[in-house]
Amino acid sequence: MDFNTITITGNVTADAKLRKIGDNKHALNFAIVCNMGTRPNGQPDSLYTDCTIYDNFALAMEKYIKRGRGVVVMGTLKQNQFTDKTGTKQIHHYVSVTNLKLTGKKEDGKDESTEHHA
């Protein structure tokens, strides 16, 4: 049996967007950036990763996933395959989040570190 688990620490790039995907089904989409240092050419080495939280977990986390917020996301790496408008096949990778830890500071400036599970 193969294992598909991923953990990434970073900062939320924009406020999360909640969308309805069916009867009583929801998806909360957001992206994080993980700053990994500097490349040999002096440019920043950053990894941008799309993330999705589903259903009740999505509803509960919507108010916390805001731009600049520090997070640790844990989940499985998923992919969507599709054909774009030009007819080119594309693959989109994202993390299906099962656990999320909020890090850093809340909007009121107080330190916060809390963990949430799907």
* Estimated share of beta-strand residues: over 45%
What CATH first level would be assigned?
Mainly Beta
> Tell me, what's the shape?
globular
> Which strand order does the major sheet show?
1-3-4-6-5
Determine the CATH topology. OB fold (Dihydrolipoamide Acetyltransferase, E2P)
**Which consecutive residue ranges, at least 5 long each, have pLDDT under 50?**
none
**CATH superfamily label:** Nucleic acid-binding proteins
Please state the structural category.
mainly beta
Give the % helix: under 10%
Mean pLDDT across all residues, rounded? 90
Radius of gyration: 16 Å
The topology string of helices and strands comes to EEEEHEEE
Provide the domain count. 1
State the major sheet: 5 strands, mixed, barrel
Count of DSSP H/I helices = 1
Please describe what this structure looks like:
- The protein has 118 residues and is mostly beta strands.
- It has a single domain, classed as OB fold (Dihydrolipoamide Acetyltransferase, E2P) (Beta Barrel).
- The chain is 6% helix and 60% strand.
- It contains one helix and seven strands; from the N terminus they run E-E-E-E-H-E-E-E.
- The chain has one helix at 55-61, and strands spanning 6-12, 17-22, 25-38, 44-54, 70-83, 89-103, 114-117.
- It has a five-stranded mixed barrel.
- It is globular and about 50 Å long.
- It comes from Sulfurospirillum tamanense.
